[in-house]
Write a structure and sequence with these properties.
Blueprint: H1 18-32, E1 44-48, H2 50-59, H3 62-67, E2 70-75, E3 87-92, H4 96-106, E4 116-120, H5 126-134, E5 142-147, E6 153-156, E7 159-161, H6 167-172, H7 178-199, E8 203-207, H8 225-240, E9 252-256, H9 273-280, E10 287-292, E11 301-306, H10 312-317, H11 322-339, H12 341-348, H13 357-365, H14 371-393, H15 396-407, H16 413-422, H17 428-441, H18 448-458, H19 462-469, H20 520-530, H21 546-549, H22 552-559
Parallel strand pairs: 1-2, 1-3, 3-4, 4-5, 8-9
Antiparallel strand pairs: 6-7, 10-11
């Protein structure tokens, strides 16, 4: 898979992203193929459960589904009207409850539908297949019985989730519950395997090895989470080899990690445009409420917009540093005005001098003939302006600097105490996040009376202390015998008395202020792409064929594509040149 947003539209004819693959499989492999040659019915009913309806909604629009002959979408667990003249498509999970509901629909003298085309989102057990075959009256009414192997949720072109909302609790809870944990890992393994089944890729399955495997230390369930998940995925992938066109040899690499490798990344303030939007704005998923000027001259109207990949400006700027994004937006607005004669005339009627981004925005909004063209640009100017105001009002630059100094060992306990005493107006959330970072770096400083005194100084309630204490549940197993670079334990610089969880990367300059931080996974993926990731710390679940250790196939995997960061922490070489035409002007 490529790491660049632009790859799907430039120079990569055979490149298909998660969402494209999911959409094409659902529409063409499932909906379009569900048709009998002698069927006179042109419209069909689509029946799904709670999971599969979510899978469908992430990848397809209702118009896509309707264009494939679906006139009605139903919930398998709701009472439904009989439509004996229409065929039905069942896209469901292979559970006993779903199979019972399906059999109930199609059994007896008067089934709900004429024909049933059944597609399971993941592999079905032999017992359930036998249960379906028991009823001889149903078999002639089945037009298809197939495993789609598509049970992941494509959140965008390059990302997917398995949608396990309680995974953190089930896997890392205070009281270990291996039954719940194993059930959670089984669901994850099944769903991740369906990603590779859809991509037609067969990976080397690599995972973070448990560090406490020695005679004196008892291995806990938490230590073995990556190992167990890797084993579960591998077992599912072996069965995928029977799928048509599925590779029989390894074609890529899958790296399985858990939160213990990097507890700081989810807590620290990230300064990319995307991260700032999700962190500082009251967004619901990808939905942002945008205020637009009223066409009747009244108060501003509220409009829901989705920050997604169909928006070329979002696609270009989402991984840029917020300062870089703001700068580029100003340039886009300036370029628009300079190329537009009507805007220039309006500019000429003013006092002269350089205009702010906000003034430019108001000017182009006054040009109705360009309203469609400017809508997206105006939206992002408003968002970036709002984010910058919040950063200023909440004093996030100072906080962000302290966070990053802590992580890189340039600040310590005294600096945090000073921040709490001089920034009493800081929000509860920001103070809590700072303490969580401190808890990762100096766990002993938050134990007992010391921790309570810090919480009092920060004026945080007891519930927040629980959240800070729970960080220990995500901590990697202690290993006093050695400190492996592959384990990414806390590093100690001989020149620094303070602890550091990151090292500055040699030969790299900080392009933008507060862009020093990087998540550990970025370093791991870069090492993996170069073939430098330790096989002791990150072993391979596959029974390694000679190619895993030789230079032939392993080298070919590592050579293409070369991994690179999409962040503007460094000079953003992946971005288009500043002088290029604006993407929005061609949309």
């Amino acid at each position: 898979m490529s790491y660049s947003d632009s790859d799907s539209s430039s120079g990569a004819a055979d490149y298909k992203n998660f969402r494209q693959i999911s959409r094409e499989r659902l529409l063409y492999e499932m909906l379009r193929s569900a048709k009998m040659k002698d069927s006179k019915s042109t419209w069909k009913v689509l029946i799904m459960d709670k999971v599969t309806v979510k899978i469908m909604s992430y990848s397809c629009k209702m118009a896509d589904i309707t264009s494939e002959g679906v006139s009605l979408v139903e919930d398998i667990y709701r009472r439904r009207q009989p439509l004996p003249s229409m065929d039905a498509i069942y896209f469901i999970q292979p559970t006993k409850e779903n199979v019972v509901m399906f059999l109930s629909d199609m059994s007896g003298r008067t089934p709900l539908y004429k024909k049933a085309f059944v597609y399971f989102s993941s592999p079905i057990s032999r017992e359930l297949v036998a249960h379906i075959k028991k009823d001889s009256t149903i078999l002639p009414r089945i037009g298809a019985l197939s495993e789609m192997n598509l049970e992941y949720f494509a959140i965008d072109s390059q990302g997917f989730i398995t949608d396990n909302g309680k995974a953190l609790e089930d896997l890392f809870g205070d009281e270990e519950n291996t039954r719940k944990g194993d059930a959670c890992l089984t669901v994850m393994a099944t769903r991740i395997a369906t990603v590779f089944a859809s991509l037609r890729e067969f990976p080397f399955v690599r995972y973070r090895a448990a560090k406490s495997l020695d005679p004196t230390t008892m291995t806990t369930f938490r230590d073995l989470i990556p190992t167990k998940l890797a084993a579960g995925i591998w077992n599912c992938l072996v069965k995928c080899k029977s799928i048509p066109n599925f590779p029989q040899k390894e074609t890529c690499e899958l790296l399985i990690l858990d939160r213990s490798i990097d507890q700081i990344a989810p807590v620290i303030h990230e300064w990319t445009y995307d991260a700032m939007c999700r962190d500082l704005l009251n967004m619901e998923g990808n939905k942002y409420v945008h205020e637009v000027p009223s066409k009747t001259g009244g108060p501003p109207e509220k409009k829901d917009v989705l920050l997604e990949e169909h928006d070329p400006i979002w696609l270009e700027l989402r991984h840029a540093h917020i300062a870089d994004a703001s700068e580029r937006l100003h340039e886009k607005m300036t370029n628009f005005v300079s190329k537009n004669k009507a805007a220039q005339l309006q500019h000429g009627s003013r006092d002269g001098g350089e205009l702010s981004t906000r003034e430019l925005q108001k000017m182009v909004q006054a040009l109705p003939q360009y309203s469609e063209q400017i809508d997206k640009l105006s939206l992002h100017v408003e968002i970036a302006g709002k984010i910058n105001r919040i950063i200023r009002d909440q004093g996030l630059r100072e906080l962000g600097q302290l966070e990053q100094d802590l992580v890189f060992g340039d600040a310590g306990m005294k600096d945090v105490i000073k921040f709490f005493t001089t920034n009493e107006e800081a929000s509860r959330e920001n103070k809590l996040r700072l303490l969580m970072i401190l808890a990762v770096l100096y766990p002993e400083k938050l134990e007992g009376e010391k921790g309570l005194n810090l919480m009092k100084l920060a004026k945080l309630p007891p519930d927040d202390m629980n959240a800070v204490n729970n960080m220990r549940l995500l901590a990697p197993p202690s290993d006093g015998k050695k400190s492996s670079a592959g384990a990414f334990s806390l590093k100690f610089d001989i020149h620094k008395k303070k602890r550091a969880a990151r090292k500055d990367r040699s030969g790299e300059q900080e392009t933008w202020q507060l862009s020093r931080f990087y998540p550990i996974i970025e370093e791991l993926v870069e090492k993996l792409s170069k073939g430098e990731l330790s096989k002791d710390d990150y072993p391979c679940m596959n029974d390694p064929s000679p190619t895993f250790h030789s230079t032939s196939q392993a080298a070919s995997i590592h050579e293409a594509p070369v991994a690179h960061s999409m962040r503007s922490r460094r000079t953003p070489t992946w971005a288009r040149p500043r002088g290029s035409d604006d993407e929005y002007s061609r949309s």
